[in-house]
Amino acid sequence: MTISSPRQKRDPEETRKRILNSAKKEFALKGLAGARVDTIADRAKANKRMIYHYFGNKEELFQKVIEEAYLDIRSAEKKLNIVQLEPIEAIETLVRFSWDYYLKNPEFLALVNSENLHRARHLKKAQKIIEVHEGFVLMMKEILNRGVKLGIFRDNIDPVQLVITIASISYYYQTNRHTGSIIFQRDLMSPEAQAERLDFNIDTILRLVCS
Amino acid sequence: MTISSPRQKRDPEETRKRILNSAKKEFALKGLAGARVDTIADRAKANKRMIYHYFGNKEELFQKVIEEAYLDIRSAEKKLNIVQLEPIEAIETLVRFSWDYYLKNPEFLALVNSENLHRARHLKKAQKIIEVHEGFVLMMKEILNRGVKLGIFRDNIDPVQLVITIASISYYYQTNRHTGSIIFQRDLMSPEAQAERLDFNIDTILRLVCS
Amino acid sequence: MTISSPRQKRDPEETRKRILNSAKKEFALKGLAGARVDTIADRAKANKRMIYHYFGNKEELFQKVIEEAYLDIRSAEKKLNIVQLEPIEAIETLVRFSWDYYLKNPEFLALVNSENLHRARHLKKAQKIIEVHEGFVLMMKEILNRGVKLGIFRDNIDPVQLVITIASISYYYQTNRHTGSIIFQRDLMSPEAQAERLDFNIDTILRLVCS
Amino acid sequence: MTISSPRQKRDPEETRKRILNSAKKEFALKGLAGARVDTIADRAKANKRMIYHYFGNKEELFQKVIEEAYLDIRSAEKKLNIVQLEPIEAIETLVRFSWDYYLKNPEFLALVNSENLHRARHLKKAQKIIEVHEGFVLMMKEILNRGVKLGIFRDNIDPVQLVITIASISYYYQTNRHTGSIIFQRDLMSPEAQAERLDFNIDTILRLVCS
DNA sequence: CATGAATGAGAATTCATTCAT
DNA sequence: TATGAATGAATTCTCATTCAT
């Protein structure tokens, strides 16, 4: 039996992933300026030098984190197979998904806020992101069309406005949960409050699309 | 006769205000961690030392900025005299106000995001804010009641959920304008896009409240 | 009586000068890449931060050092009032000056070498340097002209080539004194060796210019 | 059948040479402190580990480069077979050689400058170098003697001073070509300027040695 | 012999804050 | 009240070198 070495196993892909995960947390928690490279390295149990080796510098690491975040949410949503659902069910599923995804991935909200603080200068460089989202809007358009044909949805709803609205009502509630809980003097994130809000959101969107 | 001093005029209140304004811009632009005390002082044409004199330190300055921001939006909204309007008109006015205020005060959005990144720890200390917002929810409740009595509004709408929803659909659109413009491949802030969104928002809310 | 404060006296001009002097030594000793900002600050008994405050960064500090070095040698040479001397005396004085200046300012040699390693990219930015040297070449031209008129100098000597040659024979000897002492197995910088070389140099140049 | 390896061919001597060449370039370009081990390895298309395997460390590699450089210049000069030439032709050939060698091997100049910055501490360890140069001075002595006997050279010229002077006037011109071109506001390395300087140098040396 | 991931020491630079005037 | 020089603690980033495979 030998004493285990303190050195990291030589698994570059693993190391890369650990750094990326650690960075996601740190950037979400502190923003780009507030995040500490040291903290990222420590949490990743990686040598700080590796961050520069794999990602160039702090800003490029942030960019990679942003890219991955946007790819992940679309990839999760694709798994829902929404196209196979009835129009109303499809819409409701999307509202639920939006709520649940933000709930399970609160870093996503923080990262998007950070990226907007930086005027989306990192996202601009990510071609893949644009392509992935075109499909998303088309899918929404298709759902709306089907609903209109079935006589259950209103005509002439802009799919982009709808997509934005669905995101808004979950996003805002959750991203502003701290200031909101103070201003409204209630715990916006208690299980009951959560359930209530999700229902309210589904209602809001269905009233918006149904004829 | 004395030689005129190159120093700043000794108007303490003025200096304080200039610092506060400069800080608001800088914090909105860069967040708490990214903001630079030097930049704030320079833009305020004040000596850096004055910041510490008047506000203690960077973080307390941030807190003051946050407080002022929340007081300002409610003070602006109060000037609308919404209680005197018809229920539908009142609601529409609030939706418009929400949109316009964010448009004219984009720093507000950035500051609120920053404050939530910091888990509202600065806002927690501001007693005044809580009081001011209680009034706001009560006013919304009163509008809803009147609408219900007139038979034009649905019953049992939670004024807090409504207030949050009204804010959401304007806030999200504007705070995420940079990432949104990339993802949806359109300029979300062109005059036409703005008009379209405001209409959509009014529609969304009216469908939500009207019976 | 009070205990003297460990803090530096608040004399900005003094601080600047101390940094510049310290930097000159360090850059001459180690080159741009080998020099340490910490060492410069320590030797200047200044806070490292002051280097960035006064000079921007390491490279800009280097640039300032180079500029000053070139200005200093010309300023020293101007004090010789060479134009008032007889042609032969003038030439001999210049050869002596060249030798002595390098001897008393060995950093100059090292700095010029460093700057050439960096392809003169710092000197390029210094307009003053060019102006100062134009005057130098003109002065040499005037000396040569007078010598020709008096029938003691050869005609058609390019003043620039002469200036370069005068510098060469002192510069090379001194800047390569370490490798030279090894290769030639003698101490090139012993007092006797120095005197011998200076005589040799004067002889070399007079044979070159005299008819 | 085996799958061909992507590795470098296992030719140790070749690898060593590639590293040495790459190092020469890098050290000449950046100096000892500024040179990067990574860059040397990359340019040599060798693994960084090989540098340590063959040369120990960065400094020992530098030492080897310096040694080789000094051996090369003397070896090139020996090929001239100067001893077989007439005294004047011999001297002129040496002046030309000095000029041409520096021109074709600009790294030599930079390396010598670097080594002097480091007070020749690497050269000191190279016994071979000393031996080789003893021969060089003896050869110069012999040429001078022959010239004196033929009545064409002056008596009592120190061969070491002459050797140094011949090197000086080419070396200085070329090593300071960047700062020189700025200071004198002319391109010192244009073909015309080069030809002119070489002629000037030959003239300078012949006037020095001829009686 | 060859590879390239990993490391730790250190270097440049930044920044909020304090102090002498 | 006002100024701006000075400070020290971080923070990002770099680099020669070593180790597992």
Q: How are the SSEs ordered, and which strands pair?
A:
4 copies of one chain form a homotetramer.
Chain A: H1 12-34, H2 37-43, H3 48-55, H4 58-78, H5 87-104, H6 106-117, H7 127-149, H8 159-175, H9 177-183, H10 191-209
The first copy, chain A, binds a DNA duplex (21 and 21 nucleotides) through helix 3.
Q: What would the keywords be for this entry?
A:
homotetramer; Arc Repressor Mutant, subunit A; Tetracycline Repressor, domain 2; mainly alpha; DNA-binding; 211 residues
What's the SSE pattern of chain A?
HHHHHHHHHH
Rg estimate of chain A, integer Å: 20 Å
Number of strands of chain A: 0
Largest interface: A-B, 54 and 54 residues
| Helix count, DSSP H or I runs of 4 or more residues of chain A | 10
**Percent of residues of chain A in helical segments?**
over 70%
Summing up helix and strand content along with how strands pair, one would put the structural category of chain A as: mainly alpha
CATH architecture call of the largest domain in chain A: Orthogonal Bundle
Under CATH, the topology of the largest domain in chain A is which? Answer: Tetracycline Repressor, domain 2
Main β-sheet of chain A: number of strands, strand sense, barrel status? none
* Overall geometric form of chain A: globular
Poorly predicted runs of chain A: 1-7
* Quaternary structure state of the chains depicted: homotetramer
**Beta-strand content bin of chain A:** under 5%
- Which CATH top level class of the largest domain in chain A fits? Mainly Alpha
Total individual domains of chain A:
2
N/C terminus separation of chain A: 73 Å
Mean pLDDT of chain A: 93
